[in-house]
Amino acid sequence: MNRFLKNNISVITLATMLVMSCQDFEEINENPNQPTEVPRSYIFTYAVETMLDQVYGGFDNSRVGMTLAQYWSQNQYTEESRYQYRPATNNTTWNTMYTALYNLEEIIRLNEEDELTGSPNEMAMAKIMQSWGFQFLTDVYGDIPYENALLAAEGTVSPTYTAQQDIYTDLLQELRDARDMIDVSAPGFGEADLIYGGDMEMWRKFANSLILRVAIRMADRMPEVSLPAIEEAYASGVIEDHTETAQINYLATQPSTNPLYVDVVVANRIDFSSSNTLVNELLERNDPRIEAYFEPAVNTGEFVGRPFGQNAAAANALSPDDVSQLSEQVLSPDMPGLIMDAAEVKFTLAEAAQRGAALDKTAAEFYAEGIRESMEYWGVADEAQIQAYIAANPYDAANWKQSLGVQKWIALYMQGFQGWIEYRRLDFADILQMPISGALVNIDQVPVRRQYPPDEQTLNRENYSAAVTRQGADELTTKVWWDVY
Amino acid sequence: MRRSIQIWILVLAFTPGILYAQERTITGTVVGADGVPIPGVNVVQEGTTNGTVTDEQGNFSINVPEGSGRLVFTFVGFETVTLPIGTQSQMTVTLEEDAQQLSEVVVTALGIERETKALGYSVQEVQGEELTRVKETNVVNSLQGRIAGVQIQGNQGALGGSSRILIRGARSIANENQPLFVVDGIPLDNSNFNTADVQRGAGGYDYGNAAQDINPEDIESISVLKGPSAAALYGNRAANGVIIITTKKGTTRKGIGVDVSTDIQFQDILVLPNYQNSYGGGAGPFSQNEQGQDVATFSVDESWGPALDGRPVRQFYSYYPEFPEFYNQATPWVPEPNNVRDFFETGFQNTNSISFNGSSDEGSFRLGYTNLNAKGIMPNSELDRNTINFNGTLKLTDKLTASAGVNYINNTAKGRPEQGYSDIMVQFNTFGQRNVNMDILDRYWVTPTGEQVSWNRISANNPQPLYADNPYWIRRKNFQNDSRDRIFGNVSLSYQFNKWINLTGRVMNDFYIDRREERKATGSVGQSYYVSEVRQVRETNSDLILTFSGDINENISLTAFVGGNLRQNRYNVDAGETVGGLSVPDFFNLQNSTERPLITDNTSQRNINSAFGSVSVGLFDLLYIDGTLRNDWSSTLPTTNNSFLYPSVSASFLLSSLPFFEESQQISLAKIRASYAEAGNDTDPYRTGLTYEPRSNFGSNPSYRVPVTRNNPQLLPEKTRSYEFGVDLRFFEDRLTFDATYYNTLSTDQIFQVPVSGASGYTSQIINAGRVQNNGLEIALSGSPIVTENFRWDIGVNWARNRNKLLELPQGIQNYRIANGPFAVTIDARVGEPLGVITGVDYVYQDGRKVVDENGAYAFSDQLVPLGSVLADWTGGLTSTFNYRGINLSFLLSAQRGGELYSLTSTFGKYSGMMEETVAGNIRQLYMIADGVRMDEDGNYVENDIEISPVDFFASMFGHGRAFVYDASFVKLREVSIGYSLPQSLIGNTPFTNISLNLIGRNLAILHKNVPHLDPEAAVTGSGNIQGYEGGAIPSLRSYGVSLRLGL
User: What are the backbone angles phi and psi of residue B154, rounded to the nearest 5°?
Assistant: First the structure.
């Protein structure tokens, strides 16, 4: 009896222990390290900073964008300027951009679900930044996951690719919708808006300016859509001068500085220098922006560009002190990350006018304004100098792709990818060159797209293959849809 | 010691008085075959209860009635001896070891000792003395090559670095696949907090896994439960097997015993890359300064410079007026073939240990203290470990026994070497100048004003280091340090109701605080920083077990128990990192951060409640059957799916108990066994809810994001099913034994973080998916070919083959990324391949020849292809021991066949012109022509004749995977020891009970390997599945030394 009782007591004790401790399991598994709700503005700050940090980071703009546009050469480790790229960093570009785009999608979802505080302005800002990001990706890669992208929560983890033509058509619509949602009298994200500090009128102009960028790239394929879109956006109001530039205003203190400052100044590295492609062009035109773009060579005090695409031995034989390095302005911690500037708006309008859009100024007038906005943005204050430059580099309607193309390319300095994209589209001649020591890969032209990141081959293989079948081989030489010439 | 002698004298003194009782006294000594006295032997007058026990000296004294009778001598592990009393009053009795009986008892799940013949699954045991013969800073490494089916890889160069144990292959796609460590019933945390960067060879420190806190000196035995059947009672975390460690307890003896041991080991480099010594740093010819002197190229951290022909050249150390010896001098440009070797110092490790033990009728205890002090091969590195171990038991009443054990460990280390693609190994193996003289770097590492002197200065005019710090600067200024204080222990109360029923309750706790500090001094390459991380890890288990054991009748035995366990794990990390550099130079404190420091604050908790039961039945000493059942409830799973039940069943059939075999002279044991088991598993905490993740503020704007991994509120428990069959055969009175096991394991519904296309919005998601199969064969063969009175030769071989295959991934996913290497390859899991496939680009082939492109470099395949598996085809070990009159010689060979690794040392060592391949065949003077075919103008493939410079050729190769993936097979002479135990005849008159001396050597030679420049085991920098990526490994080491043991 006694034994029986004792045995049972132990079993009962055990059972009680189990029951008691099961109850708060749900509570135990609530993550104490991460909140379940945060203000939407915090997510917007994250998304904007992340996309710009990626695009202006050492492995995208510096090594890829700036060398593709031939603004910069490499003092050492010169593979990218010879068109050999690192596969792993390409994955990072893709993943970082898409996950940031997803955070913008999250802002839209939170606004839609919140009947009390849902804000059309917040949704519009998220959509505008999404459009900017998607256009960047499609311009670089061609067909990309778009319609089917950002749907992991709905179970789509291997999204299909959308043809670039369809993406472009939709981007136009998205930007218009976003612009029309904006209520300039209502608040946006305030200080959490790292671009315009909550000025919704500027977001409207920014949306219209992005419409210009999207539309002009469609011009060779769909002029019937492109030109009216530009006319409409222009009439609605675009970025007017360099004080309205869409840019992320980096801070002078880490960790919120321009990533280039960390890569070069903080890390004390000298991977990059000026390229002779750009320096020679600036010298030939006596372009005052050269002083804002580069420093004179330490040893000679002259502006000298490093030959583009040297191999290691050639690069080493020419000391960094013998060529022009990046300017102090470019390397300053609070150098803004450009998203879209007034010069590009003006050059785009010039091209639209040239192509026959009904605008209130001529192509030549917009062209001159473009040069002026760029000069002023880069701190060229001397009016006479600006006028002399415009006079010496007049708009050439007969060869507009050349004259407008080269000026747009010069003005897009620091926006490596945009400079390269405009080169692909406008095909201005005799400026960009093949690497002086030869390419490291089998290519005899300037690349016209970036290869898809290797992760897509493994993680999204079927859709990747379908896109390659449709668009053409996954090579640096396969043209994207808008790249007709 | 002295006291027991006194007692003996007393016993002798009273002897005459006893004679009065019409009895006589017989005295004697019981010794083993080796002449060593055996204490504790039962001496009984046959057929009576009259008996005694031998004392510590093996002496006994028994009163027997005048006349006849026999004395029976029995002792566990020895054959029973029965002797007639006769008329003698003094006898010496020799007991022979009963080999069969000795090996029959092993420690199984929950610390239960079982007879091996009754087990339906494979358990292998290693005795503590085998592990302490040659000590490792990480005891796990000592198991290398000793146990069939257990693959152990250790990072030997890393001063207490990581060890990875894989028992019967890798089961989990995403988790670490490490077995559970249980010390005296205490589940011991074996976390490895190494960053992913360290594991993927991208740089950082290897702090090792926490199981290295176990002190080999305190280990009595290690029992390895290899499969789920053996481990079923440990529940969800034992799917990868269990390492059960039993620590030493107080032994049955009189008085207090004292054991002392000391051991000294030295370490030096086993393998260094084959460097070229013909060309110096730079990328082309010298430049000339205004004085017309040749000037070396400092800014290029490669070795494509001018030939090392002895001409006078301005070198990096000639620009400092503080060093007048060289100031403005051109010095000879000469090879430095031993510069890397010169940098490394001789490692040193000293272990001192003392322990006390004793026992009485009421209880027993053991108290041990060990100090380990080690100095690594890199300058300014040291590790110090103090361990205190106490075990005690006390009989409170006849039925109630209390026991407690506690271990305190204090670890401190300074200057652990950086792993992989980071500061030091980069300049030695991947990006450096071959002409650098270490002695000069050592002596002139800093100017009197505190500026660094680096060989990699920006230019002649600018002394700032560009990419590489002076390695001595790194060791003296940028060192890390860490400490871990740990307490683990248990308290148990056991009540024996009667002969059959026992109730035991235990509480077990493992707790440690781990603190790590990393720093970079002002004036180094890049921004100065300070990082401090403090982790607290705690696991508490309480259990209650009710056991019934007894024989139902003489032919049927029954053991059964039921129990419950409550487990709680808590983890916390508080870490900070300076931002924007240090304000006050070289003041390493988070408050000295220029900007607001980056903070990490992470806490987690997991609770698991379990109920379990087991029944074991033995029939006629012929058939043994076990069954177990366990149910777990885990807090980490959704409440609707958090309960999981799993059974196991096993059987052992003793053929040798059948009449046919019982008569056999040759066969001493023949057993077949079979088992089946299931195991469930939960997941990490916080994988079911949707939350936002904090990021660094932008100025004063907070930043939060949707995590890049999507959690899953619908998770189910994981499942592993396995079965195994085995045979155990012993011949010629156990002189030859053979044990073989075949097993098959299928793991399904694995919970893991699956990478998905980033275009989905997440880069990974947590799901239940995946099927992984492992099957394999384990064979252990041992024998004693020669046994004579003075000479004995034992030899043992173990061999295991595991076939691992990923059968299934979630729908639509063909490939799971285990890790991205920093360059060229990824480590993947692909359906139809083993876990851990090295993936990258291959050559393009035409009729089996490599295709060369127009530039003369190899063309790369468009697609990423599997280049090899990180898992071995088979592993094995061979031990052999020779004993001759107290002299013991033993060695251990271990081998691995297959398995591949990617070598960054080869990739960039060639890219940068440092390795011997870059000067082979005088290619620097001529051009090279890659072996392969090229396409001619007509589209036909012809023999390649395109010239390419070696610089361009090796530069073109760095993204290539295939070219740098190597077969990791090896045969190593893992261990050699020569020992001598002084015979009793020599120490009989000393206070010592034993004295032994050992000469030891470990990792003495690699007898076979296929990886150039490296030790094939050098790629291990973590315990998990991220393997096979060598990112600039620290050279592996060989050790040799001496150990001395004394017993009082």
Answer: -130, 145
